[in-house]
Design brief:
Blueprint lengths: L2 H6 L3 H10 L6 H6 L1 H6 L2 H4 L3 H21 L3 H18 L3 H49 L1
């Protein structure tokens, strides 16, 4: 399961935390649309090497333009073109920064997912114990 699919299964408050990672840094629409592609790239390497970052930036734009060309809806196609322009304006001169932003966001997403899973595990354990606690309380009442 992709990391983005795991995000979709999180509680709403945790999904909002993930969304907030992208507020001013990278378009959430692109994160969702290109989740599989984004997750297969080595953004950590891109955040350390200008050439790798530039290649990732170029590939991201090519992929995004491909999505745009395949888009049937005029409204969605226009929105993707606008997002593509915004990415170009923001990161054309700073692909290293873009790679660092994406790398950091993916790491933080993973932390949020892990927190969500820990919370689910604790909740499931509590749910399993609840019937046993009730049974013990009933037995305690009967014994007294």
């Amino acid at each position: 399961m992709s990391q983005w699919e795991e995000v979709q299964k999180l509680a709403l408050r945790l999904q909002e935390q993930v969304a907030s990672l992208y507020t001013d840094t990278f378009p959430l629409e692109v994160r969702e649309l290109m989740a599989a592609w984004i997750e297969t790239q080595d953004w950590a390497a891109g955040s350390d090497c200008e050439r790798t970052a530039a290649a990732l930036y170029s590939c991201l734009l090519v992929e995004l333009e491909g999505h745009c060309a395949r888009q049937q809806s005029l409204v969605h196609r226009h929105a993707l073109k606008k997002v593509t322009q915004q990415l170009q304006e923001k990161y054309k001169a700073r692909p290293l920064h873009m790679a660092a932003v994406i790398s950091s966001s993916l790491r933080e997403e993973r932390r949020i997912i892990e927190r969500g899973q820990e919370t689910q595990d604790r909740s499931a354990e509590s749910d399993r114990r609840r019937p046993m606690d009730t049974q013990l309380a009933v037995v305690g009442c009967v014994v007294q």
